Amino acid sequence: MSDLSTISVMFEELKQILKQKNNHTEENSISTSDLANITNQVSKSEELIIQKLEQIEQTQTAPKKIHHRISIDITSSWVFITIMVIGFMLLVSLFFHYRQREVINNLSDNDLKYRYIKAFNKSDSVSIYKLEDVFEYNRNSKAIKEIRQSVEKYEQDVIDKARRMEQAKLKEEEAERLQNEASKLKLK
Question: pLDDT tens-digit profile of 3-27?
Answer without folding.
Answer: 666 667 777 777 777 777 667 655 5
